[in-house]
Amino acid sequence: MAVIILFWLPALFMACSSEPRTAASHPLLEGNLKESSLEKEVRTLMEKGISLEKRKQQIRAIELAFARLTTKERARNLAALCYLKTLGSPFSPLDLAEIALAETGGHSLSSKATSPKGAMGVWQLMPRQALSHGYSPQEMRNDEICAEAAVRTLRSKLEIANGNLDRAKKLYCGIGPQADAYLRKIHAIRNSLLAEMKRSNAQLAMNQTDVAVE
User: Would 34 be classed as within a structural domain?
Assistant: First the structure.
């Protein structure tokens, strides 16, 4: 699945950089008038005026941050999941990435990571949370499924938090002093990712200038 994601992701970025097509111009599925679910999500975002370019810019910074903790290939795969699994949600790729870094950054972003309380996977879902979203606890070892469950869990926390994203992330951890410390850690990770994104964008701009001069 990770290979498929990596093969497909550049095509999505290219499609997102072009003018959005109308619903009628989308290719019809054989024997079906419905769009694919992912195509529909992308079109909906574009119709709402949400900048997919900004989301795309986050991926490089996320990949670089992940690559300091794991292999380049795994960093790329996990960064792609942060992009794909937050499409159509209230969250950005950075939101999902910073939770991964907070939860298992100290364990090389390992899918085999298990907390003393039994939370599993890169995004550290408790067995009951996995089951509440229709997954088995062991499926949290699968990065793609774990990412899906993490987005669903964060969305449910956002509802409890009345739309306050900081509070939702705090609730992702729990309550009490430990959750307060977790939120401070999340903020520090966010600042680091934003700084990485700024450096990455500056380097990209410099490279484009050098190419133009040549």
Answer: no
Are the C-beta atoms of residues 91 and 85 closer than 8 Å to each other?
A: no
The per-residue pLDDT for 57 is: 82
> Is 32 part of a structural domain of the chain?
no
pTM score of the predicted model: 0.74
What range defines the domain where residue 82 resides? Answer: 44-197
In whole angstroms, what is the distance from residue 200 CA to residue 206 CA?
10
**Comparing C-alpha atoms, which of 92, 149, 159, 155 is closest to residue 124?**
149
Specify if 77 maps to a domain.
yes
**Spatial CB neighbours of 142, under 8 Å, sequence gap ≥ 6:** 111, 121
Neighbouring C-beta atoms of residue 165, cutoff 10 Å? 15
- Whether 151 has a pLDDT exceeding 70, the answer reads yes
Q: What is the pLDDT of residue 197?
A: 86
> Can you read off the two tokens belonging to residue 25?
């111009």
Question: Contact at 8 Å (CB) between 66 and 108?
Answer: no
pLDDT of residue 161: 96
